[in-house]
Amino acid sequence: MSSSVSLRGYRPADETAAIELWRRTWQHAYPAIDFSARLAWWQARWRGELVGRARVRVAEIDNDLVGFVTVDRNGYVDQIVVAPEAWGSGVANALIAEAKRLSPSGLKLHVNVDNARAIGFYRKHGFTAAGNDFNPHSGAPVLIMRWHETESDDPSPAGPAGGG
Quick one: how many helices (H) and strands (E) in the chain? Predict the structure, then answer.
């Protein structure tokens, strides 16, 4: 994947690709779980809980949907999903930067405690542990992580309020 990442707003025509990307990515991360069996549940949740209630941005490379992020009005990141073949390509970096842009006052998310790759990614992007909980859908233990903008997050010389 040598082409550049482009971000845009979600469109209803993206639904099938976004749902399949969710299934494929989670299946890759947790091969012992049958995510195909959860598709009807996920589609209902996608339509009823995320689309319309959260801002959804998609990432594309060469017009192929390779990732998405959902950020609700309270700064909660329910999903950041990147196609396994795009891991390490900058897609996740672009999506987390977009989440921060959408909610500059802060972000909160839950990440499975056994997902060391994701936890490391979030730490690299300034998130800190804020507690423990359980996923209300799966019952899996999760780490609560938060990000709040600091001057070191802003690359402009004048800081967050600057015109850089």
Answer: 4, 7
How confident is the model over 36-87, as pLDDT tens digits?
999 999 999 999 999 989 999 999 999 999 999 999 999 999 999 999 999 9
Question: CA–CA separation, 58 vs 65, rounded Å?
Answer: 7
The answer to whether 94 and 125 are in contact (CB under 8 A) is no
Using the Cα atoms of residue 108, residue 109, residue 115 and residue 121 in order, give the sign of their dihedral. Answer: negative
C-alpha span between 20 and 71 (Å, rounded): 20
How many structural domains does the chain have?
A: 1
pLDDT at position 2 is: 55
pLDDT score of 3: 79
In a domain, 90, yes or no: yes
Q: What is the CATH number of the domain that holds 29?
A: 3.40.630.30
Q: Is residue 58 part of a domain?
A: yes
Q: What is the pLDDT of residues 76-94, one digit of tens each?
A: 999 999 999 999 999 999 9
Which among 110, 117, 116 is positioned nearest to 133, based on CA atoms? 110
Token pair 């969710």: residue? 22
Please, what sign has the CA dihedral across residues 88, 91, 94, 99? negative
- DSSP labels, 126-144: T-EEEEEEE-TTT--EEEE
